[in-house]
């Protein structure tokens, strides 16, 4: 039996609309490292916090970690299918 959909919430309690994540790879595996799921009003603060946390990350030899970006959340869509919203990342 499939699991019923559940709400994805921002830390403020509102429905999350975006995912702040960075592309990570160890050379064989590629994925998005999630920093935050948030609503658009919380995006500036959450993005700034994600950038601070990213700056403190250390990678092992062979790993890559891009700066955090903003992606539209879409129910049932895997990371590869998320649309990047570079137009709202300047905040």
In summary, what is this structure?
It is built from one helix and four strands. It has one helix at 43-55; strands at residues 18-25, 30-38, 64-65, 69-72.
* Main sheet record: 4 strands, antiparallel
Roughly how many Å is the radius of gyration?
14 Å
Number of strands: 4
Which class do the helix and strand fractions yield?
alpha+beta
Helix content: 10-25%
**In percent terms, what proportion of residues is strand?**
25-35%
Number of helices: 1
Low-confidence stretches: none
Terminal CA distance reads 42 Å
Write down the domain tally: 1
* Bulk shape: globular
What is the mean predicted local confidence, pLDDT?
92
Order of helices and strands: EEHEE
Give an account of the 3D structure.
The protein is α+β, with helices and mostly antiparallel strands and 91 residues long. It has one domain (18-85). 14% of the residues lie in helices and 25% in strands. The chain contains one helix and four strands. Strands 1, 2, 3 and 4 form a four-stranded antiparallel beta sheet that branches. The model has no long low-confidence stretch (mean pLDDT 92).
Comma- or semicolon-separated keywords:
alpha+beta, about 90 residues, single chain, about 25% strand
């Amino acid at each position: 039996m499939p699991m019923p959909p559940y709400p994805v919430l921002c830390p403020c309690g509102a429905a999350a609309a975006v995912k702040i994540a960075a592309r990570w790879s160890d050379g064989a595996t590629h994925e998005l490292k999630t920093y935050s799921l948030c609503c658009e009003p919380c995006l500036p603060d959450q993005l700034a916090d994600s950038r601070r946390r990213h700056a403190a990350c250390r990678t092992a030899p062979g790993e890559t970690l891009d700066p955090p970006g903003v992606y539209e959340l879409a129910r049932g869509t895997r990371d590869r299918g998320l649309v990047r919203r570079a137009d709202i990342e300047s905040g």
